[in-house]
Amino acid sequence: MSDGGSQTGLRMPEEDELFAVVTGMLGANRIEVRCMDGTDRTARIPGRMQKRVWIREDDVVLVSPWDWQDEKADVEWRYDKADADRLREEGHVQD
Fold first, then answer.
1. Start and end of every S1-like domain (predicted)?
2. CATH of 14-89 among 3.40.50.10860, 2.40.50.140, 3.50.50.60, 3.40.50.300
């Protein structure tokens, strides 16, 4: 296994984004996530993802924490099962 080239085609976090695991569904386009920095946040599913991307508990997502309110975030991306398994194998996401 190579030490960095294995992420080809996989969307990785930019500087203001974090990996997170969905821990609960709150309704009203909001979910509860556990971010990889150890913080639990309430994340908002943006309109561009609603009805197009189905998010469920235990999905791996990419979130962007709010600058002015650290306990909240916006969902930027949802990984499919194969990509999420790969992120777990590579150690980027811990359950």
1. 6-80
2. 2.40.50.140
